[in-house]
Amino acid sequence: MEQMMKNTMQQLLSSSTLFMSDLEDQLNSSKGQIEKIIQLINEELKQHNFHLLAIQPEEQIVIPTNTRKGLCEILRDATYFSIDDLTPELRVQLMLITLLVEKESLSLQDLAERTEVSKNTVLLDMKLMKRKLEDKSIEVKYSRKHGYFISGSEYQLRNLLVTELKQLFQFEFANTLLKKKQLIEPNEVFLLRQRLLRAEQRLEISFSDEQIEVLPVTLHLLIKRIQAFQQEWVPETEDYGVFHTDEYEAFQQMFWDQNGLTEKDRLYLTLQVLSSNMLEAAIHLSHSEALKTAIDRFIDQIELNLVTSLVRKEELKEKLWLHIKPAVYRVKLGLHVQNPLTQIFQDEHASICSIVNGAAGALEDYIGKSLPEEEKVYIAMLVQAWIYQTNEQGEKIFKAMVVCRNGTSVSKLLLETLKLMFPHIEFLGAFSERTFNQKETVDFIFTTIPLHTSQKTFIVNPILDQKERAHLRKNVRKYIERDNEKKARELLHSLRDHIEMEKQDVIHEKIVDFFDKSYSDNKNNQKTEEKEHQPFFTFEEQHIHIIEERVTWKEAVCYSLHQMKERQAIESRYMDRVLELFLKESDRMMLGPHVYLPHAKPSDGVRKEDFDILLFRSPVEMPDGGMAKALVTLSPIDFQHHVPTLLSLNELFMDETKSQRFYQANHALEIVETLQQHVEEEHHAI
Amino acid sequence: MKRVIVACGSGVATSQTVASKVQKILNQNRIKANVEAVDIKSLDQYIPQSDVYIAITKGSKDYNIPTLNGIAFLTGMGMEEETNQLISLLT
């Protein structure tokens, strides 16, 4: 059920409005099931004071911004999900981390309390732990005096702590779990994170989102261990090649105020930072000509085996350098990275794996140690991404970007896979969650994590197998089909050779109108027919509101838009669009003296023609500085139908006697009458 | 026949209303002219074939044909001058 809830929330997050039938399709479930899930989600939302999801009569699910934020937070924070029932593997990890960072003696009873299981279960878990440590020359021991403790060389124990944490952080709830078990001090972690971000800026590098989350916790717990145990760490090699580099100096300073650290301890911590994956780095960081030569040799070897030459080789070398630089520290430190994608990638891309295996010697010679399987797979991912990448720069219709928590190789592979799948989409690149919002607006975002954004997102796995690729293609297609503006862009693109450049904008508009029109025609054929006989909009009490209190322009416009939404006249995106346009261009959206006319286009999410009139008892300042006495908010169904009504309203506002009657009305009904009378007179005049 | 164009950002409501209104005024004054609402993006291609441009966006660039203020027709402020000018331009 939890998984189902999670999937549903991800689907909900991926667009601003969707229909029940979409969810049924995408989740492969019955309507009843989905209604139940939505009910459960609403319960969660309610509990955390977010607005609820609502299913409209037409089975459309509306997701207000506030709800979107709520869904995002719920998905992120595992406290909302139960973390009380830990699996034995997780309990073992938790116990290991506890034993590695806390020196006070821990009895069987203590461990049972910490993991919230019985003593018997702890004893069983201990067996599992012993098996896990078997081939690591690390032992878990027990003495009456000291309780349980772990023995091994300090070097190995620290590395064990680091790898256990990396593994734990593959679960979204890792942070919450560590906090709940009081293993970490949130303030300390925050401080380290801030310092890391500052160092990032100073060195012009950027760590992956994943690292920014894991690294501060790792450093914090390592410091905790070092301070508690005060054991000397003996490096395996003296030569880490880090001294006198800018980055060593910068990272080293992060720990200046930590007591009880020796020079060597600081080196160990700095190496942890250096071995972390980066997304970007200024190349000047390197002094390592030797590494560059090794990469050159590696690429030559690859090309030889592929019997093809790779495009934009310099760029590939740069990316490889970016990845291998920290990898070198990892290998030298003996830190094994967990690459959850190893197996999947090896299965999907066996041939490239074997080619990289064959060429890896060039890199291993440089490092002086052999590369573990996981590291080789990361490198293979990068090379595979480059093979996907072609030099061809076809014409693009849409813009998109990729948001990924992982480091260079995974995000690059995802980016290139998507480029290959969608040749008509221009990809701006792969970005981290922290930076994507600073980029320009795009048509789609492909992301591996749920994002809090109003842009259209597709949530994808970092590695897409054949089935997932087909599924994603279908979903993107479906989305474009439903969006008239995008559909029009595609059509225009296919006709572009036959259309003069300067006419393209006009034709684009016309196509959108055409689609909009045929959409609404299909939708309510009868209603449109009726309307055609009625040039004027029929105002009723529900369309008119007298506002007694002082309000801002935004409150006023929002109020009207909500009324229209309630009447099923517009979609949420129409609301956003009107607010955006009105802020910028209120000076041209006028309908009479001191009367403003907020509106957007039919293609911005109009479902039927509607008007909403507000009469202000005290004038309201508009974005352009003018004072409004009334507001007429419009949702046009096409480019023409509303014009007679607007014209008629304009005449009314310009007529001294009639407008006075309008402004002096005590009740909406009086205004309705004034409007009706006016329309009748106008009608006769015509 | 003379041609008057009205343009604003979206071309959905304001320019359409101004165009209808201006057409009505011209009809009342028995002046024959075509009034058309166009999208601001396609303005450049309409200008050469038009006689008067009624602008609704502020600070729009200068065109080499007479330009009038469209908002005046909606708010009434300065409407008389704009109407007179329009009539003199078209007769």
Q: Rounded to an integer, what's the Rg of chain A over CA atoms?
A: 31 Å
Count of domain modules of chain A: 6
**Low-confidence parts of chain A lasting 5 or more residues at pLDDT below 50?**
525-532
**Largest interface, and how many residues on either side?**
A-B, 31 and 26 residues
Structure write-up:
The complex is a heterodimer of chains A (686) and B (91). By secondary structure, chain A is α/β, with parallel strands linked by helices. Chain A has six domains: 2-76, Orthogonal Bundle (Arc Repressor Mutant, subunit A); 88-281, Arc Repressor Mutant, subunit A, CATH 1.10.10.10; 286-379, PTS-regulatory domain, PRD (Orthogonal Bundle); 398-479, Rossmann fold (3-Layer(aba) Sandwich), CATH 3.40.50.2300; 483-523; 531-685, 3-Layer(aba) Sandwich (Mannitol-specific EII, Chain A). Chain A is built from 29 helices and 16 strands. The model of chain A is unreliable at 525-532 (pLDDT under 50). Chain B is α/β, with parallel strands linked by helices and 91 residues long. Chain B has a single domain (2-90), classed as Rossmann fold. A four-stranded parallel beta sheet of chain B has the order 2-1-3-4. In chain B, helix 1 (14-28) links the parallel strand 1 (2-8) and strand 2. The mean pLDDT of chain B is 84. Chain A binds chain B through residues 502-503, 505-506, 509, 581, 585, 587-594, 597, 599-602, 634, 636, 639-640, 642-644, 646-647, 650, 654, and chain B through 8-14, 16-17, 20-21, 24, 39, 41-42, 44-45, 56-58, 70-71, 74-77.
